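Q: Here's a chain of 111 amino acids. Please give me its 3D structure as tokens.
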Amino acid sequence: MTKSFESARVSLDRSSFLRISGEPGTELTCLQGCLRITHDGSPAAIELHAGQRHAVRGGPGVIVSAFESSVVQVFRPAAQPVGAVRHLHGMSGPTYFWLSAFLRRAVALDA
């Protein structure tokens, strides 16, 4: 079961890794050590040192591994409830019902 979170700090040893979904808006910050970030399906790797940050653009998943003992902070923007989306965007009628059904299905698939 996948649990959503807004922010988490994770300590990684040299032999460990962290796999997260590639949700757009997710930010990874290296708080200590040195990290290697790879996106599923991409041969490129990103190296982060203490104090550096990487914004995830989206995709199936991201793997964070450590070159040495490191700490990474993962931040995901909080999801808005369906009612807030309707209020903020002034949606009504068929558009609102389609969007709310889509969001319910997306949440069910993530659980």
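Q: Can you summarize the key feature?
A: Confidence is low (pLDDT under 50) at residues 82-98, 105-111.
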